[in-house]
Amino acid sequence: MDKQVRVLGVPMDLGADRRGVDMGPSAIRYGGLADQLTSTGIDCIDGGDIAVPRPEESDPDAGGLPSGRAKFFRETKEVCEDVATAVNATLMEGQFPLVLGGDHSIGIGTLAGAARDDEELGVIWFDAHGDFNTPETTPSGNIHGMSLAAVLGLGAFSDHEWAHTPAVSEENVVIVGLRDVDDGERRLIEESEITAYTMSDIDTRGAPEVVAEALEIATDGTDGMHVSLDLDWLDPTEAPGVGTPVRGGVSYREAHIAMEYVAEHHDQLRSMEMVEVNPILDEHNRTAELGCELVASAFGKRVL
Ligand SMILES: NC(=[NH2+])NCCC[C@H](N)C(=O)O
Ligand SMILES: [Mn+2]
Ligand SMILES: [Mn+2]
């Protein structure tokens, strides 16, 4: 990575049920992000945090969608628009945007800011979850479980320009590490043209092969790639500090090799985000520290 990296924190927790991910950006900074990047030879600056309204001062049902179907829709839209503006400005400055969550709903904003109308942007979504629910299928009403569907303009998101990002086409989107999918969400994934690699694909084929194929899909014929790293992608024994842990995730080594493969595509890498770190549920900040290590691997840190 030869560009200067600009860190943008988004202390967002309106898209998830369990409070605490709003402290993710602090925990990640405290976990040594700047040192990890500097020791990788990356020039980085901290762009601070984007303001997020407090849930106590917000109305979860004020978004104009049927009650409960997409909680804090209006606030999520406002935060995502600000994230998109900041990511876009970062790219215009010639810097690389590294967005820290916060819950995964912020991915809608990151992608809106990273995409260009006349281009195709590939996406790799490292996650236990599909985040492919729509307001019509969601069992929880939590937007962090809908972000990828929102970007692709599915269901009620089709007429919401702040979310639907046409530069992201289904055939250039890959989910890696899937192991927890809701019923309606499963149908949407199956009907779509995205590629979803489950944990059994990783078990049978090995992480390196699966990740290499994912990178191929996200970069072949696209003008750039966004990497979204949900820390619940890892097994909870490695990453306990996440709001929606699911057993059976990737190991520490598998996660590093995946990020090292990402680094090999640094020419195509346009933006990256790391989300869902919840320090309240963590053990001595180890999930945030692991996240910092993984970001360093994605930016080229090697043992030798
Ligand atoms: N980004 C996440 N951690 N997403 C979890 C989503 C969980 C569940 N599928 C839901 O829609 O509520
Ligand atoms: Mn997610
Ligand atoms: Mn997840």
TrEMBL record:
For this protein, what is the EC number?
3.5.3.1
Which regions form coiled coils? none
Copy out the cofactor comment.
Binds 2 manganese ions per subunit.
Gene Ontology cellular-component terms for this entry are:
cytoplasm
Cofactor(s) this protein requires: Mn(2+)
Catalytic function, reaction form: L-arginine + H2O = urea + L-ornithine
Q: Which domain of life is it from?
A: Archaea
Q: Is Hydrolase among the key words of this record?
A: yes
**Residues spanning the signal sequence:** none
Give binding positions for Mn(2+) 1: 104, 127, 129, 131, 230
Q: Name one Pfam family in it.
A: Arginase
GO process terms (BP)? arginine metabolic process
InterPro entries (alphabetical): Arginase, Ureohydrolase, Ureohydrolase_dom_sf, Ureohydrolase_Mn_BS
Q: Which residues does the record give as Mn(2+) 2 binding sites?
A: 232
Pathway it belongs to? Nitrogen metabolism; urea cycle; L-ornithine and urea from L-arginine: step 1/1
**Entry keyword annotation includes Thylakoid:** no
Question: GO MF annotations for this entry?
Answer: arginase activity; manganese ion binding
Q: Which SUPFAM superfamilies does this entry report, sorted A to Z?
A: Arginase/deacetylase
The alphabetized UniProt keywords are: Arginine metabolism, Hydrolase, Manganese, Metal-binding
Q: Which PROSITE patterns match?
A: ARGINASE_1 (PS01053), ARGINASE_2 (PS51409)
Q: Which family does it belong to?
A: Belongs to the arginase family.
Q: What is the protein's given name?
A: Arginase
Q: Which organism is it from?
A: Haloarcula terrestris
